[in-house]
Amino acid sequence: MSEVTTSGTWTTVTPTPPNVSGLHTGHITWGVPVGGGKSGYSFTGGTVDVEAGGPETTLGTFTHQNFPIMGGGVNRFDVDLVVRIRFQEDAEDRDFSFRFHHFETPNDGPTPDDEVDLPTRVSPESVTIDGEEYAAVITGFKRNGEIVNKFFSPENGSNSADIVAVLSRVGVPDVVITTVRHKGSVKYTQADEYVEIVNRGTAHADISGWLLHADDPGQNFTFPPGTTLRAGQRIRVYTNEVHAESGGYSFGSGRAVWNDKGDTAHLIDTEGALVSDYSYGTDAGRGTGTA
Predict the structure, then answer these.
(1) pLDDT of res. 177
(2) Based on the domain organization, do 98 and 210 belong to the same domain?
(3) Residue 23: domain span
(4) 104-109: long-range pairs with CB below 8 Å, 24+
(5) How many Å from the N-terminal Cα to the C-terminal Cα in the chain?
(6) Are residues 16 and 116 in the same domain?
(7) Is the Cα dihedral 194, 138, 2, 45 positive or negative?
(8) What is the predicted pLDDT for the residue at 291?
(9) Beta bridge partners of 94
(10) For the chain, what is the domain count?
(11) Residues 132, 215: one domain?
């Protein structure tokens, strides 16, 4: 476990929208205001504990200032962030680079919320810890206790989310079950239950044919051929709903899969080996702890 201090600067915008300011600072803005302020991003770091190869942690806070602007015809562009991490043991600064993809949506359309995505989740830079090479991997935006792949931001305000990341070994996938939502809000069927799985490694993982199941017979889901979990990507397998933004996977079960009192989700690869499991409630402590 290492205590680290983070800070960040926005370095480039490609292609460049009109009226960009704040490059090489922690707060970048763009656009010609329409009755309000400019739009832009800021990054605020802090001091956190990071374990190499360990659980997800907060890298810093991302804020999107979203106001109506004239974009000059440039409504999709990439914004690059360099996060500087100082490891307290050696007081040495190391830089890790990431790319954010911004979609400045039309304000009068059916989906006016602006969209922020992470096309580059794995830093090209690495650090050597105890003889192993590690890179930083962003695994999502955390807002209101929920971690998601994309950030949607309504107009006329500042909207913030924590950037969640891990330090993972270079060239290795690391697929784990992170949670089981075992109490859905849909009466009787609990169709909106889900299991969440993330690849917190630096390499993509082919999970075609992998099996996700509970302890009871018939409660199985097999990932279809061609299923790749990208580095840093987070997906969900719902009981009986399909959500494209989280992979579109579903057990297709007309009844609840996960026991409200306690259960264990198991993720098995094509060789029959246990990759990860997650236990909760009365089953807590039964799992291997891989999640």
Answers:
(1) 97
(2) no
(3) 2-169
(4) 104/17, 104/31, 104/39, 104/69, 104/71, 104/74, 104/75, 104/76, 105/75, 106/75, 107/68, 107/155
(5) 18
(6) yes
(7) negative
(8) 42
(9) 85
(10) 2
(11) no
Q: 205: buried, middle or exposed (CB in 10 Å: 19+, 13-18, 0-12)?
A: buried
> Are 122 and 234 in a shared domain?
no
CB distance 254 to 240 below 8 Å? yes
Altogether, the residues listed in the chain come to a count of 291
Q: Indicate whether 38 and 155 sit together in one domain.
A: yes
Averaged pLDDT for residues 222-236: 97
Strand partners, 25: 10
Tokens 């490059």, located at residue: 23
- Work out the mean pLDDT of the chain and round it to a whole number: 91
Entry pTM:
0.88
CATH number at residue 223: 2.60.40.1260
In angstroms, the CA 155 to CA 274 distance is 45
Using CA atoms, how far residue 155 sits from 64, 112, 195, 200, in Å, is 10, 8, 32, 31
Q: Rg of the chain's alpha carbons, rounded to an integer? A: 20
